[in-house]
Specification:
globular; eight-stranded mixed β-sheet; acid phosphatase activity; alpha/beta; glycoprotein; Phytase A; transmembrane helix; single chain; 16 helices
Length: 489
């Protein structure tokens, strides 16, 4: 019977990197083979496309801009969780370097740019559109476009809008650290997944266009997967990947979905004459960012108009719960996944060898060709889940109390934590050293998506500065290996 309610939310625990496939060996092999053929074709097209494409800087009419990020319909697009296109987050502390201070070091950790859905999700979304078109009895008002909507989204790779995001990101970095970049070539690493590698390449293109020079190549590409120690990709902590706390994020989302989805579900099913499940409603909301990203200029999608501002805030909180309890402070082993990267960062800041026994790659980190300590500018490219662990390991959200899974909390209540504020597409964390007049010691600042963190854990001042020595001392969690020993309990 159409128009009835099915409130059960069934989470589909699809990782940012890999889809969940059938456990049947035959179906697994068929699905894996099909996925490989799809991805090979997509990568080939991207490679050919890259030979003939050029991504200019955006114009004043663009939705996505270098310094503001995505600025169209912000009451919706700034509340899309980790699927938000990057935008400049409000900061209580001036993001400009304090007067009398010179930036002497800059390190960026970046998420890849906007992409198509992961392979498993793109199948799920395609099936959703088919279900709507096969069962709907009406397409009123803003739902009208669904009648003839053609699903054309790919899987896993950057979209043109996502590529432009990364060009803009490189230009944004250059504008902020122009003097430093003019005098120092960035040392660049990337996780091995294709969209991460391409994101690093597009970022380098943005820097090169700013310099009116040829783009440089990536210095180090580190393979991803459980066989490789890689601080840009969590994969080698068994208890985190498959232990009892592995599903914390999904469980928190399931409870919250039971609160916010049913009213939306009733409204949508009543309008369309369908019987869409709670999971399908969340997928329908997911189509807003992904359909936006599918447009070369990231045009605001009609899917976004199907839901109210209130509903988008509820959706954003749904995604925030997934990151907080899945990969951040809310997961007992979440911060530990970022310990290795923090120890690499400390090595760069102090120009001393890496001291770590977690997921660092000792072969690469002990070689000055693959992990130099004498550079002034570094850039690393990764995924949202991995960056969530790094932010947690640094202690940037230690003041954030355990998030409620029954009542929505805003960023003031969460002390600046949300998925959209921390790990949107093209997210970036800048860690900078400053030499200030009348100060004997260099200081450190941490800036996440243009929001300066107060660094209270190392006696940060009103400019968000800690002395280098106090910052290093404050990172005792990372320096002692976090809870890495629990990975093998």
């Amino acid at each position: 019977m159409r128009g009835t309610r099915s409130y059960d939310y069934t989470s589909l625990p699809l990782d940012e990197k890999e889809p969940v496939l059938s456990k049947s060996p035959r179906r697994y092999n068929e699905a894996t083979g099909f996925r490989r053929r799809v991805l090979q074709a997509a990568v080939s097209c991207v490679a050919i496309y890259g030979l003939f494409s050029f991504f200019p800087f955006p114009t004043s009419e663009s939705c996505d801009t270098i310094d503001e990020g995505y600025r169209c319909s912000p009451k919706t697009t700034h509340f899309l969780g980790q699927y938000s296109l990057w935008y400049s987050v409000p900061s209580e502390i001036d993001v400009a370097p304090p007067k009398g201070c010179e930036v002497t070091f800059a390190n960026v950790l970046s998420r890849h740019g906007g992409r198509d859905p992961t392979f498993g999700k793109t199948i799920a979304y395609h099936l959703l559109i088919a279900e709507i078109q096969n069962t709907s009895t009406a397409y009123p008002d803003k739902f009208k476009f669904l009648k003839d909507y053609e699903y054309t989204l790919g899987a896993d790779e950057l979209t043109d809008a996502g590529r432009q995001e990364m060009v803009n990101s490189g230009a944004h970095f250059y504008r902020r650290y122009q003097k430093l970049v003019n005098e120092n070539t960035p040392f660049v690493r990337a996780g091995g997944q294709h969209r991460v590698v391409e994101s690093a390449e597009r970022w380098l293109m943005g820097v090169a266009q700013s310099l009116d020079a040829e783009p440089r190549k990536i210095d180090v590409i580190i393979p991803e997967g459980p066989s490789w120690n890689n601080t840009l990709s969590h994969d080698i902590c068994p208890a985190f990947e498959g232990g009892p706390d592995h599903g914390l994020g999904d469980r928190a989302q399931r409870v919250w979905a039971g609160k916010f989805v049913p009213p939306i579900q009733n409204r949508v099913n009543s309008a369309l004459g369908t019987n869409l499940s709670a999971t399908s409603i969340v997928y329908l909301m997911d189509m807003c960012p992904f359909d936006t990203l599918a447009h070369p200029a990231a045009k605001f999608s009609k899917f976004c108009e199907l839901f109210s501002e209130k509903e988008w805030r509820e959706y954003d909180y749904f995604q925030t719960l997934g990151k907080y309890y899945g990969y951040g402070v809310g997961n007992p082993l979440g911060p530990t996944q970022g310990v290795g990267y923090v120890n690499e960062l400390l090595a760069r800041l102090t120009q001393k060898p890496v001291e770590d026994n977690t997921n660092t790659n000792r072969t690469l980190d002990s070689d000055p060709k693959t992990f130099p300590l004498d550079r002034k500018v570094y850039a690393d490219f990764s995924h949202d889940n991995d960056i969530s662990g790094v932010l947690a390991a640094l202690g940037l959200y230690n003041k954030t109390k355990a998030l409620s899974n029954t009542t929505i909390e805003n960023t003031e209540q969460t002390h600046g934590y949300s998925a959209a504020w921390t790990v949107p597409f093209a997210a970036r964390m800048y860690v900078e050293k400053l030499q200030c007049k009348d100060e004997n010691e260099e200081s450190v600042r941490v800036i996440v998506n243009d929001r300066v963190h107060p660094l209270e854990f190392c006696s940060g001042d009103r400019f968000g500065r800690c002395t280098l020595s106090k910052f290093v001392k404050s990172q005792s969690f990372a320096r002692t290996g976090g809870l890495w020993e629990r990975c093998y309990d």
